[in-house]
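FORM 12-B: Structure-to-Sequence Request
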């Protein structure tokens, strides 16, 4: 079973993507509604892939990414950034911090799911 942690503060987005990913055979999805909860669930859930929104309460996705990559126990976890932000500076910063990719929320739902499935196959060894 491939475990994915999906962190986004928007309930509709979180539910849509967690349900879509949960429906894929072999995927188990846990969600978090803010950055602090995401960090807590990483320790409990032990995900194989983390998908982070950038703008979340308590801790931003960028802050969570920094925390993940600075912790010896989690630094090798693949992290995919997921946001409505499209400026090159933000995208570059996330990639330089260690994110494996950046998906924009305004892309088609099916396209986003296909990209996530591809990244799972490329990055995750369950």
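FORM 12-B RESPONSE
SEQUENCE OUT:
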């Amino acid at each position: 079973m491939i475990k994915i942690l999906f962190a986004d503060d928007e309930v509709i987005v979180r539910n849509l993507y967690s349900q879509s990913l949960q429906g894929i055979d072999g995927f188990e999805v846990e969600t978090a509604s803010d950055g602090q909860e995401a960090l807590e669930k990483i320790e409990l859930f032990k995900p194989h892939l983390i998908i982070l929104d950038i703008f979340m309460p308590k801790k931003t996705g960028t802050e969570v990414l920094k925390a993940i990559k600075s912790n010896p126990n989690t630094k090798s976890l693949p992290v995919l950034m997921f946001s409505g932000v499209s400026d090159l500076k933000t995208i570059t910063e996330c990639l330089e911090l260690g994110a494996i990719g950046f998906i924009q929320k305004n892309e088609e739902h099916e396209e986003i799911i296909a990209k996530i499935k591809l990244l799972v196959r490329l990055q995750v060894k369950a």
